[in-house]
Amino acid sequence: MLRLCSLTHPANIGTLSMELGGAVEAESLANEYVMLLSAAKILKDLGMNEFASELGKLTCLIAGELAIHLNTGKYVDGLASAIKDTYKSLWETEIDEYSMINILKHVLELRDKIRNGISALSPGDVAKAKEFFTRILRRKRRTLPEPLQRVLSSDDPATLIQSIATALVVTVGGVNGI
User: Fold this and answer.
1) Does any domain span residue 177?
2) Which residues of 5-30 are buried (b: 16+ CB within 10 A; e: fewer)?
């Protein structure tokens, strides 16, 4: 199995994005990600932990593919560790499936705008992405670790999108060695 902790580091993206990112539609990845999260939560609630665990592994793989697609080449030192110490597992959040899919589609649209050279995104676009990022964190914004404060204070949408990509992997337990 791939060590997903290395997937979001810019130095490792080139080869993997050609292998995984080009062949898979980003929107279907978002749908699969949310569907797997939902199914795993239901199985966990029913006490079927073995099956939930298997879906969790698949969710980690999809999260890695989604992170590859969202990659902006930005790196925030200490980000993954800070998220790991701060996040709510996406299985435990109150974000419903419809909202989650819409938010992920919005983030994918922002990434596409960045890829197409649109560097000035509307404040509303960035605010919506920042809201999603903060909803998966355990603490209020003012008590977040420094790397997360830097992301939320940044005016660079590419840094925010990269941070969300990292969070999508970390919040489903897909980062080894942190």
Assistant:
1) no
2) bebbeeeebeebeeebbeeeebeebb
